[in-house]
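Handout, page 2. Input:
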Amino acid sequence: MLDLDPHQSNRTGKHNGETEIQENGIKRHRTSLPAPMFSRNDFSVWSILKKCIGLELSKITMPIVFNEPLSFLQRITEYMEHIYLINKACSHADPLERMQAVAAFAVSAVASQWERTGKPFNPLLGETYELTREDLGFRFIAEQVSHHPPISAFYSEGLNKDFIFHGSIYPKLKFWGNSIEAEPRGTITLELLKHNEAYTWTNPTCCVHNVIIGKLWLEQYGTVEIVNHSTGDKCVLNFKPCGLFGKELHRVEGHIQDKNRKKLCVIYGKWTECLWCTDPTTYETYKKNEKRGGEQKKPNEDVIKSENDEADDMPEVQDTVQFIPGSKLLWRINCRPPNSSQMYNFTSFAVSLNELEKGMEAILAPTDCRLRPDIRNMENGNMDVASKEKERLEEKQRAARKERAKDEVEWHTRWFHQGTNPYTGTSDWLYSGGYFDRNFSDCPDIY
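Output:
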């Protein structure tokens, strides 16, 4: 099985990117990439982006130095880093506690993006990625089901048949002067089979600031609504924009309500740090006292943005989440490896995703991301080769598309089909099954 173990408890200080073996014979996976990331300081994307203000960016080719050595399909797989929260949801008898765990999972799914300003590689049409983690009890498969517009579909299931997690994602990218905004599209669905429950939601908007000038920084904002289609309960989470003084940077606030809109609990925290919940009365009392105590305080003039600032400076990170007495911890972010800043700010989980272990090529589908030569060469520090391979693969994809058009042949997805989400009634990409039977004879030649 493809058991890539990124648990931090299994981490050592070795930095050669090789798989390690514990003394007791249990395999441990690499703790770093084979080569450190290249500096982006000598590169400017203004010549490429200046004609694209306000336009959709999926068709714009960016220099490879602004990428990170992962496909977007692998980036989606990072949702599973905190799968223990799904397991918690499965184990709770109380529907409110289940919703709390699901809400924490939804927030944790975007936590890996913190300081991840590199752009993942656009998946080629027909590209796939699989991950089986027997120790964590799940397996995962994703496929690029459309190129224009770019749509990635994924499906994951518990090895104990306790949950199904699936969805399709097609973020719409726009360039706004000195920032790039990714507007979320597509529904995410989590089914807890034991409880006969289904939850759906859409991710918040992600914005990368200072793509032209200044230091890159990232924020998430927008409202995320998680609906329990079985009980009618809903969790409303507000990912707050940083605001004028940066006071709200990374903050998440929201509540869980029943089908009659009665507030059952309040959720607060930061998507970069942790998430807590408390009862609504305690929260309101705390907020009132906090407001009274802060009425005489003035904002720090040092962080007020000057009208003449050229860069959209990142506000100073505010104090850690203010704990409200009596609150329950729902989730806390994992520590990143000590050399993360030299590895595109990858988490330990992300570091392992493109690892190609001995014997895996005979098991993987020929369309798996791990076999992409441009990503592999970038990971190994061969930037010139990676750039040429990226151009070759894109040209091969264009040529194949022209050939299909000439012969009037329609592209057929391999592992997913277009259908209707049974809970929202909206268009979705659904898993067709059969991937793990490993019949890859009719997979397309994309590399």
